[in-house]
Amino acid sequence: MLDVAGNKTHDESRQGEPLAPYAGDPNKYQKRFYIESYGCQMNFSDSEIVASILNAEGFGATRNVEDADLIFVNTCSIREKAEQTVRKRLTEFRKLKEKKPGTLVGVLGCMAERLKSKFLEEEKLVDLVVGPDAYRTLPALVVEAEGGQKAVNVLLSRDETYADISPVRLDSNGISGFVSIMRGCNNMCSFCVVPFTRGRERSRDADSIVKESTDLFNNGYREVTLLGQNVDSYYYSEPTSGKTITFAGLLEMVAEISPRLRIRFSTSHPKDITDDVLFTMARHENICRYIHLPLQSGSTRILQLMNRTYTREWYMGKVNRIREIMPDCGISSDIIAGFCTEEEKDHQDTLDVMEHSLYDMSYMFFYSERPGTLAQRRYKDDIPEDIKKRRLQEIIEVQNRLSLQSNKKDIGKTFSVLIESESKRDADNWKGRNSQNKVIVFPKNNLNHRKGDYVTVKVNDCTQATLLGEIVEM
Ligand code: SAM
Ligand code: SF4
Predict the structure, then answer these.
(1) Any residues with CB less than 8 A from the CB of 37 and at least 6 apart, and which?
(2) Which atom of ligand 1 is nearest to the CA of 334?
């Protein structure tokens, strides 16, 4: 598999994961819905909003698709492969529907938005097609579909942020939660379908973000990740006072909820990571020392074609600035191999910027042309697949070496680690993360720690993906 993603915003191991019923839910439901999600964390977070809307209509979640009256797939359009996965999954639902007529199948998210009612022609079994800004209308659409009509709502909104809907945390470890702070994107990177599927950028009311984060903390959560396609362009203007809140201001407000609540954010566009954001991070120990700073390409010529609005020198300067203000900050990236017209020297530029930036990890992809994007309309997808794959493989090799090198540098250091869960491989070990977002596994040692505790861990060893350590003090 050469479309490589790490374990953070686009978690490969979570692709297609169904949401489990909320364990503490006292309600008895007459009807069941099943929802599985693909793509970025935003989609997983949206599925929790959908669950909240459906719960209020008397539908309870099930993890067993065969028990469901309503089956939803929350889809991703970012690369062709993501769409193919969904199409394949739909053929499996067809068989289920044949066995249990009356079951409704709905397509949500970016593919719904991209294909609109065309989806109904192409995939006859689909009953509902609902875009990411239309989830409030789901109850009415379900009624329409139950009456035998095909139901579609793909209207994009300029102001929908679902600010007042408390997402149902269906699949959470109870320690780390995601809080959506904005929707849409105005950036128009030429390769990207997101501005077309998720619409214009809009920021959510800051008070509702602080309230949701405070509620999570009061319910035992110890980490929130502020989510958006481009979080550092967050900008909210309070309608009554006219006061404006930038991303730096919002970070500060959330950081002040409690020093025991860690704050992360995802994802940033390098152009918007200002000194103000960096100094705010540096001032608050509970804002994690970790920035996802997607490079895409290390060639200025390709960056221009991608409409990324920075040069390779500017990007490397930004990496230097981050390290100057927070020398211990972890940095990760997104990289695309084989964009239109990419030559060997452009590819080499990408490898060079990786070496300069010393990324702890990267999400690495080869270019996949998406219908309707600026690149599809303006440029030819002219790099043969074998070259794209070879370049991607070289990028992966550099990243593997950098990840191992970065982990080796941590041997002998101690970190404050938030315990997230038992290690999947060995119940005698805990798994947690340090501020830099690195996974650390360490023995429980019969100490009475629990999920959500902070412990100080000394790193003794590592693999490319994980630090291994031991608790050195309570
Ligand atoms: N808003 C985020 C940003 O600007 O960094 C990224 C959002 S996008 C869901 C995640 C990543 O997918 C991008 O950073 C890019 O590397 C990758 N991506 C987007 N469109 C792509 C395409 N057409 N082919 C390959 N990778 C793509
Ligand atoms: Fe896509 Fe660029 Fe917006 Fe990220 S910033 S979602 S890559 S258009």
Answers:
(1) 14, 16, 17, 19, 43, 44, 46, 47, 73, 74, 109
(2) 16
**DSSP string for 50-63:** HHHHHHHTTEEE-S
Beta bridge partners, 177, equal 224
- Say yes or no to pLDDT of 185 above 70: yes
Per-residue pLDDT reduced to its tens digit, 454-471: 999 999 999 999 999 999
d(C-alpha 306, C-alpha 339), whole Å: 8
| Residue indicated by tokens 């993890």 | 63
C-alpha angle with apex 158: 153 to 164, nearest 5 degrees?
80
* pLDDT per position as a tens digit, 153-168: 999 999 999 999 988 8
Q: What is the pTM of this model?
A: 0.93
Centre of ligand 2 from the C-alpha of residue 185, in Å: 6
Decide: 111 and 76 in contact? Cβ < 8 Å: yes
Sheet holding 176-180, edge to edge: 176-180, 223-227, 262-266
Alpha-helical runs (H) found in 117-219: 118-122, 138-146, 194-198, 206-218
Per the document, the length of the chain is 474
Confidence of residue 122 (pLDDT cuts 50, 70, 90): confident
Number of C-beta neighbours around residue 130 at 10 A: 25
Site to substitute for ligand 2 among 185, 234, 303, most atoms within 8 A of C-beta: 185
Please answer whether residues 308 and 334 qualify as being in contact, where contact means their C-beta atoms are separated by less than 8 angstroms: no
Distance 392 CA to ligand 1 centre (A): 15
The C-alpha atoms of residue 402 and residue 405 are separated, in whole angstroms, by 5
Question: Ligand 2 pocket, 78 CB below 6 A?
Answer: no
Pocket test for ligand 1, best of 40, 193, 365, 374 (most atoms within 8 A of CB): 365
